Amino acid sequence: MTTTNITPDELWNFPCEYSVKVFGKTCLELHTTVCTIVERHTDKIHPDNITKKQSSKGGYVSITLKIIATSRVQLDAINQDLQDCELVAYVL
């Protein structure tokens, strides 16, 4: 029996397009804060690569940012920084 040791970078085939999706309570600072956090780990994100959607009652918003991911380490760092942010409720 042969086993293959595939690294996470090989599995993901970096660099690749990746969507970071964040949910939080609707507030003015959420969009700016999320973009600042993600851009610490990536290039500047073009506005065309950012989408926002309000919840049906308007209390929450989802923000999706399309980035070019370069490694699993980068994605883990983005995820951790977003989870540590008080304004962010969930990260997908």
Describe the 3D structure.
The chain is an alpha+beta fold. The protein is 32% helix and 32% strand. It is built from three helices and four strands; from the N terminus they run αβαββαβ. It has helices at 8-12, 28-39, 72-83; strands spanning 16-25, 50-54, 60-69, 88-91. A four-stranded antiparallel sheet has the order 2-3-1-4, with helices on one face. A hairpin with a 5-residue loop joins strand 2 and strand 3 (60-69). The radius of gyration is 15 Å and the shape is elongated. The model has no long low-confidence stretch (mean pLDDT 93).
The average pLDDT value, as a whole number, equals 93
Number of helices: 3
Measure the end-to-end span.
36 Å
Query: Which spans of ≥5 residues are poorly predicted at pLDDT below 50?
Result: none
Percentage of residues in helical conformation: 25-40%
SSE succession: HEHEEHE
Strand order of the largest sheet: 2-3-1-4
- The helix-and-strand class reads alpha+beta
Strand tally, please? 4
- Characterize the largest beta sheet: strand count, sense, and whether it forms a barrel: 4 strands, antiparallel
What spatial form do the alpha-carbon principal axes imply?
A: elongated
Gyration radius, rounded: 15 Å
Strand content: 25-35%
